[in-house]
């Protein structure tokens, strides 16, 4: 194998259709209805095997190709939908989750950096044709790097994930199962360098698994809070808006793609 003669730095992040921009678009480009992150369904998760399995972003490495992960970032928000002045229209009040280990008492999110080895990595993503076609953000494509919620059934109130909700592939550098937000979205990628090398053929993918909360069954907050100011921002938000749920999730990776030199050179 030749030596790496040049790095091409790429940045991949979560982009998906956002219901909040359908009427106005999200950029000057005609037909652009995407925004940062995946807007999660509000339907609560009934059990461990129906967690929302999200593919957030990724890259494909060909045979022998090398990718160096320089950094990654995580975004998670919660929101409460409140009635607007227009009848029948609700507006989400959204808050970034900034406390690294915070989660709902009846819900949580895990993150998974995985090396996925497709059977034939050069072909188009493998589809499961025993499921009906879905609208975005759902997808039945097992292989691929685009952002989506992976599903076998995306019927309202009856979501069934691929692979029983387990992120597939092999964990990378001890980051195959992350329970916290250790690389916040507000954190600059400048100056950070994880230096994690991955060799193809594979797809390098960041997954997330979401156990969506159920405000109707969630244990209620105490009637009186001794010291409101000492609470974390997320807990204060829930006290103000008891119907809050997980709302938006995203990730970003900065990767140096290594261009290999011809071993006959030099």
Reconstruct the topology from this structure.
Elements: E1 4-13, E2 15-17, E3 34-36, E4 38-39, E5 52-61, E6 66-83, E7 90-96, E8 108-116, E9 138-139, E10 148-153, E11 160-161, E12 170-171, E13 196-199, E14 202-211, H1 233-240, E15 245-260
Parallel strand pairs: 9-10
Antiparallel strand pairs: 1-15, 2-3, 4-15, 5-10, 5-14, 6-7, 6-13, 6-15, 8-12, 8-14, 10-11
Total count of domains: 1
Number of helices: 1
Shape: globular
Low-confidence stretches: 262-266
What structural class do you assign from the helix and strand content?
A: mainly beta
Average pLDDT value? 86
Strand content: 35-45%
* Helical fraction: under 10%
Q: Biggest sheet, open or closed, and with what strands and sense?
A: 7 strands, mixed
What characteristics describe this protein?
7-stranded mixed β-sheet; 3% helix; 266 residues; 6-stranded antiparallel β-sheet; 1 helix; 15 strands; mainly beta
What does this protein structure show overall?
The protein has 266 residues and is mainly beta. It has one domain. It contains one helix and 15 strands. The protein has one helix spanning 233-240, and strands at residues 4-13, 15-17, 34-36, 38-39, 52-61, 66-83, 90-96, 108-116, 138-139, 148-153, 160-161, 170-171, 196-199, 202-211, 245-260. The strands form three sheets. Strands 5, 8, 9, 10, 11, 12 and 14 form a seven-stranded mixed beta sheet that branches. Strands 1, 4, 6, 7, 13 and 15 form a six-stranded antiparallel beta sheet that branches. A hairpin with a 6-residue loop joins β6 and β7. The longest helix is centred in the C-terminal third of the chain and has 8 residues, at 233-240. The protein is globular, with a radius of gyration of 20 Å. The relative contact order is 0.33. Mean pLDDT is 86; it is low at 262-266.
